[in-house]
Amino acid sequence: MINMQKRLGKHTVNIEKPVYIISTAALAGKKEGEGPLKDYFDYIADDIMFGEKSWEKAESKFFKKAFDMALKKSGKTYNDIDYMLSGDLLNQCGGSTFGLRDFKIPFLGIYGACSTFGEAISIGSMLIDGGFAQNVLCGAGSHFCSAEKQFRFPLELGTQRPPTATWTVTGAGAVVLSSKGKGPKVTCITTGKIIDMGIKDAANMGAAMAGAACDVISAHFKETGRKPDYYDVVATGDLGEVGKALLKKYLAEENIIFKNNITDCGLEIFDNEKQDTHSGGSGCACSAVTFSGYYYKQLTQNKIKRILLIPTGALINTDISQQGETIPSIAHAVAIEME
């Protein structure tokens, strides 16, 4: 029988037992390290190759270093971790799999495109709240070059990017969730459903994902009874300028009005004009690195008390998209609060 004290509605569950985020690690690429959040990252790579022979190997190295750093900062050992959850954009989640293969921790590889970080925290928190784990290590990452190679055009072509395009964030973010400790707590999770806005353009991810973000935000407020001003920050994952504008339009149609507390990780991590990132940042690392570096410190330094983090993902498949299919999308909302 479903525990109705935990389930608030079709999409939302209440995390009853304490689930603390006791540590994070944020690793970023060179371009990200030149952006407005550079002082919040734990490590910034000197170049896009990160000392490796391929972009894919560089991506795996970001994972390995981020997860290892988050674990060390938590004071835990590999033996203390019950589960490890991660995913990325490469085929068969190659960035995670090859980067974390030496950890020897029970592993759940997950895929939610750029929403993967939210999915990882959601599942990890449920594992702890359900009594199946005490400590969970989870995160997500991406790499600009490997993503362009897989989903769009070979970089060697020098293809011109349209204004709607976003820049895949290079890096990885990792968090350690624990049933004991101190720090921000995961208090509520709203799981999104697949929404298809009919978008076919792989260079317009914001438009494809805005509907999914609106749907999960609407569900969250309806099922929790909370209002937009309950949170100091409501941060979507990687809608960029185009997607954020559409999201606010869709929310207004449902009478959900934000003041100045809604933003997007893809607009925070880059300076669009100075860094020529067009609509903003994207990728699994976008929300993972922005939260693990910037927002986590905002919480622990008591600059904000409550954040609703909503990683967004375009569930694009290169083969099916080339057959003329549209791009379905997903978003997951995670409420994180200081006591």
Could you explain how this protein is built, in words?
The structure is a single chain. The chain is α/β, with parallel strands linked by helices. It has ten helices and 16 strands.
Short description:
Strand 11, helix 6 and strand 12 form a beta-alpha-beta unit. Helix 5 runs parallel beside helix 6.
N-to-C SSE series?
Answer: EEEHEHEHEHEEEEHEHEHHEHEEHE
Q: Helix count, per DSSP?
A: 10
Structural class: alpha/beta
Q: List low-confidence stretches.
A: none
| Relative helix content | 25-40%
Query: Roughly what is the average pLDDT, rounded to an integer?
Result: 94
β content, as a range? 15-25%
What's the SSE blueprint?
Layout: E1 12-14, E2 20-28, E3 43-44, H1 55-74, E4 83-87, H2 94-99, E5 107-109, H3 116-129, E6 135-142, H4 144-151, E7 167-168, E8 171-178, E9 185-191, E10 195-196, H5 205-224, E11 233-236, H6 240-253, E12 262-264, H7 265-268, H8 272-275, E13 281-282, H9 284-300, E14 306-310, E15 312-314, H10 318-321, E16 328-337
Parallel strand pairs: 2-3, 4-5, 4-6, 7-13, 11-12, 11-14
Antiparallel strand pairs: 1-9, 2-8, 6-8, 9-16, 10-16, 14-16, 15-16
Helix pairs in contact: 5-6
